From TrEMBL:
Domain NadR/Ttd14 AAA: 15-176
Coiled coil: none
Taxonomic source organism: Microbaculum marinum
The protein's name: AAA family ATPase
Xref: InterPro entries: NadR/Ttd14_AAA_dom, P-loop_NTPase
Length: 187
């Protein structure tokens, strides 16, 4: 049984940006940072850069389980390093996405026991698939079909965890950032 929103403080200022790979999350995060908000870069991209630099194997295309476990550890460290100061902090993916990936690859229950997952704001913003801007790169080696399958899993998981899922429109980054901030102000 997944935990619902009543288990999570409504007042959390930690906001998750998630969704489809290549859908514009990182660009949106950069816009929010430009506007002065604290942002936390996606754990997965940091791990891929480090593992590639050091010759490690905790890469999604080599050892997805090890990669997901590292992403969970990284996300926990990210959260522990933050000092809540009353302003919004935006996470590019993070803890729940990493746990969802581990759960998917191991077919075991991971999310139910993740108490820290309840530390986020009740509303999560998801970017939908956007084929016109999707590109593979050195850190994203999967295709659009895999990205869409992951997106569909995440939509189900966030809803099952009791989050209010806000699917962001396919609009310019400034308007997307305006939408996020306006929605949070109204919550």
């Amino acid at each position: 049984m997944r935990s619902g929103p009543h288990h999570r403080p409504h007042t959390s200022r930690f906001v998750i940006l998630s969704g489809c790979s290549g859908g514009g999350k990182t660009t949106l995060l950069a816009e929010l940072a430009r506007r002065g908000y604290a942002v936390v870069e996606e754990p997965g991209r940091r791990i891929v850069r480090e593992e590639s630099r050091t010759g490690g194997t905790a890469l999604p295309w080599r050892d997805m389980e090890a990669f997901a476990r590292r992403a969970i550890e990284t996300a926990h460290r990210d959260m522990a390093a933050l000092e809540p100061d009353g302003s919004w902090v935006f996470f590019d993916r993070g803890l729940i996405d990493a746990a969802a990936a581990l759960e998917h690859v191991t077919q075991s229950s991971v999310l139910d026991g993740l108490a820290a997952a309840r530390s986020f704001h009740r509303r999560v913003f998801l970017v939908p698939p956007w084929p016109e801007i999707f590109v593979e790169d050195a850190e994203r080696r999967h295709g659009l079909d895999s990205a869409i399958a992951e997106y569909e899993r995440l939509v189900r998981i966030y809803a099952a965890l009791g989050y209010q899922v806000d699917i962001l429109p396919r609009i310019g980054v400034e308007r997307r950032a305006d939408h996020v901030l306006k929605t949070l102000a109204e919550d």
